[in-house]
Amino acid sequence: MVMESTGIYWKSPYAALEGVGIRVKVVNARHVKQVPGRKTDVCDAQWLATLARAGLLRGSFVPSAKLRELRVISRQRQKLVSLLTSEKNRMHKENRMHKENRMHKVLSDAGIRLGVVVSDLHGQSARAMIKAILDGQPPHEVLNLASRRLKASREELYDALQGELTASHGFVLDELLRPIEELEARIARFDARLLSELASEKNALALLQTLPGVNVIGAAMLLVESGSDMSVFGTSDRLAS
């Protein structure tokens, strides 16, 4: 049996047919050349059947039922990552008058110039220092959280941490960080669920992590999209497409 991959509408009938043991070839509608003037669904179906009988259709890759299920998790995770990026970008959006992002502005108002010596206030090191400031730790203790990879010297960082964070400053900073931390926590839960579901694919995950720049989550996302059997693609070009 053959069907076109029209949006998401092919998924339910495909799963139903797969469930009763019927093999279905899903083809890209753009690869099926229709005869001019024949535009009805019935004619489309007849044309697909004709091409299929002639062996002229190449089926698209359809992952296993388990991987299709995991794609629901991985693709929702992608949406959350996009939301997190948008939220961080919104935080960095420059004020037209002061040319400062909002977190830097609040810190500066408290006399803390961390945003002057650290380029990314959402970086791991800067975030840890800001959280320590919110917890009321003194500058010399906050300084211990600074990464050695920061360009600023220890003296510059220490000077930048001098200031007086009032309760109002702390409240606003906490509210600015809250949506970001909530999104990060949600992404972490998606990561944990995805890796738990892929526990049986440790070898494939380890192999994918040998690719430059691919960590365990990146490997999991790749595995869910492409599966572990590369032979179904035939060539690297088909895999990349």
From TrEMBL:
One of its GO terms (biological process) is DNA transposition. Residues 2-93 form the Transposase IS110-like N-terminal domain. Transmembrane segments: none annotated. One of its GO terms (molecular function) is transposase activity. It holds the Pfam family DEDD_Tnp_IS110. It comes from the Bacteria. PANTHER family: TRANSPOSASE FOR INSERTION SEQUENCE ELEMENT IS1111A. This is Mobile element protein.
